[in-house]
Design brief:
Layout (H helix, E strand, L loop, with lengths): L1 E2 H10 L6 E5 L12 E2 L9 E2 L3 E4 L6 E9 L14 E4 L11 E4 L3 E4 L8 E4 L9 E2 L10 E3 L7 H9 L4 E5 L3 E7 L3 E2 L11 E2 L2 H11 L3 E8 L3 H13 L4 E5 L10 H8 L1 E4 L2 E2 L7 E7 L5 E8 L3 H19 L9 E6 L3 E2 L6 E10 L7 H4 L12 E3 L2 E10 L16 E5 L5 E2 L4 E6 L20
Parallel strand pairs: 1-20, 6-7, 14-17, 14-18, 15-16, 18-22, 23-27
Antiparallel strand pairs: 2-13, 3-12, 4-11, 5-7, 5-8, 6-10, 9-10, 19-21, 21-22, 23-30, 24-29, 25-27, 25-28, 26-27, 28-30
Bound molecules: ligand LQZAQKY5 and molybdate ion.
Ligand LQZAQKY5 binds next to helix 3 and helix 6.
Length: 457
């Protein structure tokens, strides 16, 4: 049996980033850029006002002035501001020639019109040269590299691309992923009532959703019966559809109907078939060299059938591979330090990936054992963040309860996998452990089944 870091290394060694493709701006979200993006012009392209007020010559100082014109965002009088005159200006509008400062409207007073209905204003506060003006290129200079190859396009990046007029982009292609469930007992989720011995297929929908969330195009291969012929037919279907990755679930353990490993051994190279991890021990990884398709390689992940094992293996091993194919430079899950809110019994044989919901705060979330009896050391940890006027805050790991690998509710609302080392005994509430992020940290509710974890789970 190999360790999970070894398994991750093997998978990534066999994973190559896909080629670049062109997408429009609307299709860029979540993709990795395969090119640098430069600014074709400066922003602002003209000296722009930061405030609604009056464009002035700073040296003129306080006093009463004629308003000789106006500059509104999107429009501009060509009238220059000369000594002893001002122009009305709105936020974002071009500063007229001659003016070198803007006085906000709050520091002025409208006066009755002068001769010939000439508008007039009192400037109540002298300006410094450059005041409330964004010089040309102060946000982005023409020719600047605003985004670079390898950047992940998020919401802000979409805005940046739009700003510089980059409406067609080169991004890494995302993998095409096929998902196959296996097992004679596994029936479609729509099946009601269940027949004798049947269970609904949770893994296929879950893994298709996981692939979609990773930005992949996916192919639903349905459920394969536990026969060599049917399984082989499904594998051939995946190959024929040109997928980059096949994810199967079930049929990788030690039973006489666990046919995935022998099938992959016949068709390609199995790189590992057992990993020291809980859950997920029978996790299998193979590559198939497809001579009939120009020698291209297909990755196959044989995930264990237990739904939680599939869920955990997907995040730890499949997701980094999908990300690397899609151009991610650092495809692994990110870690944070988190403090246990309950005792955890350790597993002496396998390191465990304990599902939890992370909660940020200065003290343990209510209804956790740690909240009931916080140890004296709990607030003085290296994991705690503090700042002026800010109580020490940290991530609190609230277990999702019973961690048996058949209980998918143990993944409900989970946003992290705690990396619990392999050892005997109990890890005490209040200890700090590393947590791998599997979802964003925004507002996950603590599941009702979460909270206390009693030794034995
Ligand atoms: N003699 C041994 N038996 C087992 C071992 C072992 O080391 N020696 N390992 C155990 C571990 S750990 C796991 S995990 C499971 C994995 O088994 P398989 O990958 O072969 O999966 P199945 O036997 O097909 O199914 C296991 C379990 O999951 C249910 N299942 C399967 N597919 C789905 C699905 N699509 N949706 C929902 N549930 C599914 C299935 O009915 C079984 O209950 O092996 C242990 N055995
Ligand atoms: O490794 Mo299995 O996934 O514990 O049930």
């Amino acid at each position: 049996m190999i360790s999970i870091p070894e398994a991750q290394d093997i998978v990534l060694e066999h994973t190559r980033p896909l080629g670049a493709v062109s997408v429009g701006l609307a299709g860029a979200l979540g993709r990795v850029l395969a090119e640098e993006v430069h600014a074709p012009d400066s922003l602002p392209p003209f000296p722009a006002s930061i405030k609604d007020g009056y464009a002035v010559i700073a040296g003129d100082g306080e006093g009463e002035y004629p308003v000789i014109g106006e500059s509104r965002a999107g429009h501009m009088d060509e009238l220059p501001v000369t000594l002893g005159t001002v122009a009305y200006i709105t936020t974002g509008a071009p500063v007229p020639p001659g003016a070198d400062a803007v006085i906000q409207v709050e520091d002025t007073q409208a006066l009755p019109p002068g001769e010939g209905e000439q508008k007039r204003v009192r400037i109540c506060k002298a300006a410094k040269p450059g005041q409330d003006i964004r010089p040309v290129g102060s946000d982005i200079m023409q020719g600047d590299t605003v985004l670079t190859k390898g950047d992940l396009v998020g919401v802000a990046e979409v805005g940046i691309l739009a700003t510089v007029g980059a409406t067609q982009l080169r991004v890494f292609a995302t993998p095409k992923v096929a998902v196959l469930s296996t097992g004679d007992e596994v029936v479609d989720p729509s099946t009601r009532p269940l027949g004798p011995g049947q269970i609904r297929d949770a893994n296929r929908s879950m893994l298709l959703a996981a692939a979609a969330k990773a930005g992949c195009e996916s192919v639903d291969l349905g459920v394969a019966r536990d026969t060599e012929g049917h399984l082989e037919g499904c594998l051939q279907a995946a190959i024929a559809q040109g997928v980059d990755v096949l994810i199967t679930s079930g049929g990788v353990s030690m039973g006489d109907r666990d046919l995935i490993k022998p099938l992959l051994q016949r068709q390609g190279t199995v790189h590992f078939g057992r990993v020291r991890m809980k859950p997920g021990k029978p996790l299998t990884f193979a590559t198939l060299d497809l001579q009939e398709q120009g020698g291209r390689q297909m990755l196959v992940f044989g995930l264990p059938g237990n739904p939680v094992s599939s869920f955990v293996c997907f995040h730890l091993v499949v997701l980094p591979a999908l990300r690397k194919m899609a151009g991610w430079a650092v495809p692994g899950l990110r870690r944070v330090a988190a403090r246990l809110t309950a005792d955890l019994r350790l597993d002496p044989e396998r390191p465990e990936y304990h599902r939890c919901t992370l909660q940020w705060g200065p003290e343990p979330p209510p209804n956790t054992p740690l909240a009931a009896s916080p140890p004296a050391s709990a607030s003085a940890s290296s994991a705690a963040a503090s700042g002026p006027g800010l109580a020490a805050c940290e991530w609190w790991a609230v277990s999702t309860g019973n961690q048996i690998s058949s209980r998918l509710l143990s993944a409900r609302s989970a946003n992290a996998l705690l990396e619990i080392p392999c050892a005997s005994g109990v890890l005490k509430a209040g200890e700090v452990v590393s947590a791998l992020l599997i979802d964003d940290l925004g507002g996950m509710p603590v599941p009702p089944g979460g909270g206390p974890v009693t030794p034995g789970f």
